[in-house]
Amino acid sequence: MKAYVLRFGPYSAAVDRRTAVTLAALVVAALGLALLGLCQGATWASPVEVLRALAGQGDAVVVITEWRAPRVAAALVFGAALGLSGAIFQNLTRNPLGSPDVIGLDSGAYTGALVVITMLGGTSAQLAVGSIVGGLVTAAAVYVLSARGGLSGLRLIVIGIAVNAILVALNSWIVLRAELEVAIAATAWHAGSLNGVNWEDVLLPFAVIGVLAAGAPFLAHAIQQSALGDEVAMTSGVDLPRLRLLLVLAGVTCTSTVTAVAGPIAFIALSAPQIGRRLAGAPGVPLAPAALTGAVLLLAADLAAQLLLAPISLPVGVVTTVIGGCYLIWLLYREVRRA
């Protein structure tokens, strides 16, 4: 297998050529969509006007840099975070259905945010903490329940689906018991939207996601070993309990951070890792293609949300649900034919 060797001082890594080409193509697609997102709005701005605005020149500086750029950046970073979280949990469960939205982590993060909104008023910091705590509590519950009798990926997914159903019912009850204004805001936020996002909303989430993304390469080798089986991983020196704990913490923090700002955005974490894996032709679920695919998918979905009923902008979660639903039907059909 042909590969490129990348060197960073004392560190080196071999990257398969197909994976390298896939990553380059995804980066180009993300940049192209980002430029389109900066051009698209209530009025169309040409690429030349966008580039001039980014350089601080022209009449569209405020519109491009303060209104459109935060939304485009949020779509890219949040999509990458969801793709990374999905890849982490699909590696952990060794199952293409093992994503945060399927096993209840999105619903748990939403529960934590709902508690903050209804009881504390819901500042940005409180929402972030509430979402992360809700996601972590849900992950701990699913992990403890599925670990009884031996941890199994399929068992974890089934229990996660059951916990998700309970949390959906709990969230509906909280919304029904809340005051009308709070209930309307919580219901709209639950759809998952990037409308109205500004730099103040995203700077802290970007920092958290950046730290997690920077640490992901150091776990990549251990993740690859664990994907070969517990026995192979342990014989190669992988500390499985510690690795699983780190993966759960990283995955929950990624998806909960996104939920705190944009609400639960469904199915990106489910579909992006598998699409990225197939594009790269990788045997496992590699982290980098999953993250870049998630960024491209979410940005494309947000552009579609702006254009479908223009000038009305749909919540991006509506579009990702349609994309993810089609993907899930295809995945189930493929698994049934294989059986």
UniProtKB/TrEMBL annotation:
> How would you describe this protein's topology in the membrane?
Multi-pass membrane protein
InterPro entries on file: ABC_BtuC-like (IPR037294), ABC_transptr_permease_BtuC (IPR000522)
Answer whether the UniProt record assigns the keyword Oxidoreductase to this protein.
Answer: no
Transmembrane regions listed in the UniProt entry: 69-90, 102-121, 127-146, 153-174, 180-197, 202-223, 243-270, 282-301, 307-333
Q: Which GO terms describe its biological process?
A: siderophore-iron import into cell
Which keywords, in A-to-Z order, does the entry hold? Cell membrane, Membrane, Transmembrane, Transmembrane helix, Transport
| GO MF term list | transmembrane transporter activity
Q: Record's Gene Ontology CC terms? A: plasma membrane
| Entry superkingdom | Bacteria
Per UniProt, subcellular location reads as: Cell membrane
Give the family, as the similarity comment puts it.
Answer: Belongs to the binding-protein-dependent transport system permease family. FecCD subfamily.
PANTHER family to which the protein is assigned, alphabetical: FERRIC ENTEROBACTIN TRANSPORT SYSTEM PERMEASE PROTEIN, FERRIC ENTEROBACTIN TRANSPORT SYSTEM PERMEASE PROTEIN FEPG
Q: Name it.
A: Iron-enterobactin ABC transporter permease
Source organism: Spongiactinospora rosea
